[in-house]
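I'll show a record.
***
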Amino acid sequence: MRVGETRYLSLNNALKKRYGKKVFKVSLDANFTCPNKDGTKGVGGCIFCSPSGSGDFAGNALTSLKTQYQTVKANMLKKWPDALTIPYFQANTNTYADVETLRTLFYTAINLDKSIVGLAIATRCDALDEATVDLLAELNQHVDVSVELGLQTIHEPTAKRLNRAHSTDCVQDAVTRLHSRGIETVIHIINGLPHESEAMMLDTAKYVNRLGVQGIKIHMLHIMKNTALGAMYQQKPFELLTLEQYANIVVKQIALLNPNMVIHRLTGDSPKDTLIAPTWTLKKFVVLNTIDALLKRHNIVQGCHL
């Protein structure tokens, strides 16, 4: 356990408390696309999104869900032999299909193994029609279902620059409908977006807290090759947060979050060979330990500034 982990509710600790032992996610790629790529909502996708649809560490979409699951699980079990698992549909928009296709995929996933206790689905707020929400509620009777939604920022000018192609109100509506069916939600936010001040990033965290969601993922903006943002940055570099600036902002955000909200991530990952900047994000444990040290130095615990 890292020094600061008791100062916030980490996903690792939350899952251990819920299930009584180690639980890990198994990232899967079901070969979805995205309504923000195919012209339904927009073209090109969010400017920061990689060609894999943020599924750089997911399984191989050319193989079956069973093969993907077994491959990842075998590697993880070397470290945690008796762990439980959660299939995680990570790449692109994982509810962007007709409901019967989704039914087949999701039921296949939760029946892959007796160690499975949950199902995690990353998607967009504008790809959750009522039939899909009904299906998720049905699945939630068998395993614990959580839905991840990309908010990134509450500031609409920034969202337009990102080509997010949905409104903040859309996220609010999706969360409300999912919660009405007892489905847990997790919100993604990004720190360090162009033209955003520290105050703006803190306002986004405050908004997520007001949503009453069960979890949050906090990311640093990654500039990656083969993305629109990467091309923009290489043509005209803009200032990015330093490690110290990022850590200070995250610590302030932690202080603004309900103590019962699970913090799934305090930093993101990017493959070394595709990352342009900031390179300090490659040293994940350095980032986490910097955050932990600041939490301790300033005696910050989750929710202490609510």
The chain has a mean pLDDT of 94. The longest helix spans residues 198-211.
